[in-house]
Design brief:
By secondary structure, this protein is α+β, with helices and mostly antiparallel strands. The protein has one domain: Creatine Kinase, Chain A, domain 2 (2-Layer Sandwich), CATH 3.30.590.20. The strands form three sheets. Strands 1, 2, 3, 4, 5, 9 and 10 form a seven-stranded antiparallel beta sheet that branches. Strand 11 and strand 12 form a beta hairpin. It is globular. The N and C termini lie far apart (47 Å).
């Protein structure tokens, strides 16, 4: 039913300190809204600094789509305190606005009111905005303002050296990359457990349907709330962050070489409908960076990404080619509406356990046929994950199993990993989380998606969202920072503004030539 992990568990038990030094980071997105629950029309506040160069506070697709970024931490609780400090700082300045607590957008009266994120007059800043214009023209603005939480995770070097028996630095790049790719393949196979447990977007506001034709059997109430009764994460469905064009790339993550080759080909291969669109309109205004399947690497939508920190002037693809995979980015987490900061420690500790399991469990290469079956599993879970009797197919033969049985079998292994981690840390946190979450398979009404849907069925997303947003605003705006002082924030704001100005002054070529060079 699930891969054998006995060898890996025995090895972990014999090396209890091997997981010391796991690195983690969080990126949390949230829309700024007005006090009536509609999308704010203001530009990114100046007192947050430059979104181009600020280390902690930036924007994603739109001027109103905030993104908060933590530094790398080895302590989950301290990382979440840092994230909360960012929220505390922002809340103090949002006097007439609030932070939207859901992944799916608030009420949008007119999609043309969604203003693209602006990053100043440097060539880099202009390119970032143009990339977003390309996303708007390719996929529509509504899709691009869906929010999520990204979790960055890397295992310590000592783990890889011992687990893979690495003898020299020359071979470590390939060996460690292959290890992360095995993690990714198992994540694809069983990662649907994350939207099952933590998915929090079973419903949408009626305004989200204005740009598209929908065939899903939605139920609705008089307040304009649409939902699927057993959905867990519409954000991860075809209605949310998805691209049929990108799905056809059929990335199987069997080797770093093949992954980079497919990515490189997608970045340089024109697609007919994007060619027809062109890069500029009749007035000479830019429409997209280029006419290729992907404008840049970041356009690839996937529930998990292999990553490496880029050097100055280096693209993500070039970074991976140079040094191999350094960490992975989990992109399957909805905003948790029951947390003031969109995520909690229980979620992250579970993901830690799951990613460790993905690493040490038996693994084989993925075929395209298996990839197609995996996509069907994810689609079942995000649209009907809580449906009684829901099935999951496993393996190339697509053998059917009850989702509940697979989930419980997985938790048997996860709890064994939890015992090892807890013994090392001298507490029972990981075991407690396993005992708490495994109950969600017998009682899906305890999942985030079921809990939030009970509220949304009886009201509008606007009213429920505003109630949460106001509650969290009151909490955060009155709390004192614990790690980042107000002086620290002010220094980072000034530093970011100076850095943006320096970039703008140092540009030596015009924008068109900059794009050609890039």
């Amino acid at each position: 039913m699930i891969p054998d992990v006995s060898k890996g568990l025995s090895w972990l038990k014999a090396h209890p300190n091997i997981l010391k030094g796991i690195n983690r980071g969080i990126e949390r997105e949230t829309l700024r809204i007005n006090l009536d629950g509609r999308l704010a029309q203001t530009i990114h506040p100046k007192f947050f600094g430059s979104p181009l160069t600020h280390n902690w506070i930036t924007t994603d697709f739109a001027e109103t789509l905030l993104e908060f970024i933590t530094p790398v931490y080895q302590d989950i609780d301290k990382m979440l305190v840092f994230l909360r400090d960012i929220h505390r700082y922002v809340a103090r300045f949002l006097v007439e606005e609030r932070m939207w607590p859901f992944s799916m957008p608030c009420t949008i009266d007119d999609v043309e009111h969604i203003q693209l994120a602006q990053y100043g007059n440097s060539n880099l800043g202009k390119m970032k905005t143009l990339y977003r214009r390309g996303l708007k023209n390719r996929y529509g603005s509504l899709m691009q303002i869906i929010s999520g939480v990204h979790y960055n995770f890397s295992l310590p070097l000592n783990f890889w050296q011992q687990w893979e028996n690495i003898k020299d630095d020359e071979s470590s790049k390939i060996i460690i990359s292959n290890g992360y790719l095995r993690l990714i393949r198992n994540y694809y196979r069983f990662g649907w457990i994350i939207p099952y447990l933590f998915g929090s977007s079973p419903a949408i506001c009626s305004s989200f349907l204005q740009e598209r034709e929908i065939k899903l059997p939605f139920e609705r109430n008089k307040y304009g709330t649409y939902w699927l009764p057993y959905a867990t994460s519409l954000r991860l469905s075809d209605l949310g962050y998805a691209s049929k064009v990108q799905s056809s790339l059929n990335i199987t993550f069997n080797s770093l070489e093949s992954y980079l080759s497919i990515l490189k080909e997608a970045i340089k291969t024109p697609l007919k409908k994007y060619v027809i669109m062109g890069t500029k309109d009749l007035k000479g205004n830019w429409l997209q960076l280029n006419t290729n399947i992907l404008q840049i690497e970041n356009e690839l939508y996937s529930p998990i990404r292999p990553k490496r920190i880029s050097l100055l002037g280096e693209t993500p693809l070039e970074a991976l080619l140079r040094g191999g995979i350094e960490y992975i980015e989990i992109r399957s987490l909805d905003i948790n509406p029951f947390s003031a900061i969109g995520v909690n420690a229980d979620q992250l500790r579970f993901i830690d356990l799951f990613l460790i399991w993905c690493t040490i469990a038996d693994n084989k290469e993925m075929t395209v046929d298996e990839l197609l079956c995996i996509r069907k599993n994810w689609n079942r879970v995000v649209l009907e994950g809580r449906k009684p009797g829901q099935i999951i197919t496993i393996g190339c033969n697509a053998t059917e199993y009850m989702l509940v049985d697979v989930g419980k079998a997985l938790f048997i292994d996860l709890r064994k990993s939890a015992e090892i981690l807890d013994k090392h840390q001298g507490d029972t946190q990981y075991q407690r989380i396993c005992d708490k979450l495994v109950m969600l398979f017998d009682n899906p009404d305890l999942t985030n998606s079921a809990r939030i849907l009970q509220l949304l069925k009886k009201n509008s997303m606007t009213n429920i969202g505003l109630a949460f947003a106001q509650q969290y605003h009151q909490q955060l705006s009155t709390e004192q920072p614990e790690i980042i002082t107000i002086d620290n924030f002010n220094k980072q704001v000034n530093k970011s503004l100076i850095a943006q100005q320096t970039l703008e002054l140092n540009d030596q070529i015009d924008f068109d030539n900059y794009l050609v060079k890039y």
